[in-house]
């Protein structure tokens, strides 16, 4: 039996095992890791941890560990390095292969060798406060193999906003790609004698850092894998003064969508959509950001992105696909359809019907030589208002001699405004926004020529994307 396996179930153990695999030049699979491999990783990682920047950050992961104790640091780095190596190497003698069952909290396949606290395992109880531990024991039980793996896990963590992000997933490949991004950066800086600590993408918001990592992970997917990957990301601090934990869930349908949008034909438009989502968070809520005389990249790194937040909270990002002020889309219908099908799970027949109605409304507006109906649709604040505006458009088209109706009653009930037990929850905003998107896509040039667009700039951040989606 091997020492480790893929996806053993504990996020910190799985992170540590992934680090071991990525650190070794031969890139073994978890099942191939040997005691000699672990010995090599200990010999190479301990000196790195003893560098000042790593020690300074370790206290937020393993407080009160050997690396953070002033009395041990005073003896000199060489002494500190040898003491920590000795601690970890001693654990190798206790490591056994996986069994069929056991009481270790890391693998569930071996017997417990140690009772560990927050000094050795993040977000675990501390001291003799037994109420923090299962069965009121003093510490959580781990086998030697899992306990050692956890010590390597920080090399696969991402720094953001004073906390650390740790990934857990149903996919070993996803965990491996996340870790590879972190290790590649650490090795690159180490080769230049730049010891600045664990990987930091310079994103102060955890959600932004998460999507940064997703972009890097997708870049590794040269084979365009179709594996359904879900991600659970933990943003935590294990500081003695204040332990904190936030969790973010990225479902497979969102990850699959993000795979597509990084392809060449979508990347530019997706960048415009993401950029439109940045906001400055204040006590009064989210405010537009001012880029005047500022470096946009630095401003974005410190700002909240509502596109990312909404994807994580299962809220619509449809409003970010177009700019109401400029009456202009930020993508084409193909990318919008991809989002609606992959993430919102909208049926193709519904999309095609809304697109068809949008085309007919656009034609009617153009024939009327006025943007009156468009303004009314943009200003609609309720299902009733939206429905009335469509009735006005139907009347306009009759006066214009249109040969076919705007839509049938079946189209209205099944595709435009599907039936709901609660009229307050009718998804009318989504339908209205899809109609606006299509009208802008068809008529933007005409609207500009007729003087119906007061502002036209790709960097506009003033459109109404904060409206609550029902």
Write the layout of secondary structure elements.
Blueprint: H1 11-23, H2 35-49, H3 52-58, H4 70-73, H5 77-92, E1 114-116, E2 140-142, H6 144-152, E3 158-160, E4 163-169, H7 172-191, H8 206-220, E5 231-238, E6 243-250, H9 252-261, H10 264-275, E7 278-282, E8 285-287, H11 296-301, E9 304-305, H12 306-312, E10 322-323, E11 328-329, H13 333-342, H14 348-368, H15 372-379, H16 383-399, H17 409-416, H18 428-449
Antiparallel strand pairs: 1-2, 3-4, 4-5, 5-6, 7-8, 7-9, 10-11
What does this structure look like?
It is a single chain. This protein has 18 helices and eleven strands. Among the domains are: about 1-155, no CATH class; about 350-450. The protein has about 475 residues and is α+β, with helices and mostly antiparallel strands. The chain has helices spanning about 10-25, 35-50, 50-60, 70-75, 75-90, 145-150, 170-190, 205-220, 250-260, 265-275, 295-300, 305-310, 335-340, 350-370, 370-380, 385-400, 410-415, 430-450; strands spanning about 115, 140, 160, 165-170, 230-240, 245-250, 280, 285, 305, 320-325, 330. The strands form four sheets. A four-stranded antiparallel sheet has the order 3-4-5-6, sandwiched between helices. It has a three-stranded antiparallel sheet with strand order 8-7-9. A hairpin with a 2-residue loop joins strand 7 and strand 8.
